[in-house]
Amino acid sequence: MKHHKHHEDQAVESNHELANETHHVEDAHHEVKLTAEQVAEAKREQANAEREAKNQAKAAEREAKQKKAEAEREAKNAKKEAEREEKNKKAEAEREAKAQLLALEREAQAESKKAEREEAQKELAAKRAAEVEAKKAQREEDMKKSKEQREADKAQKATDRIFAAEEKKAARKSLAEARAAAIAARKELSRPEQGRRQKATHIVYTGTGMSSPQSMSIRGKVFDHIKANCPIGDLVPIDDLAMECKHLLYGSNIRSYLSKLEEMGHVDFFTVVDVPEATAQESA
Question: Is the pTM for the entire model greater than 0.85?
Answer without folding.
Answer: no
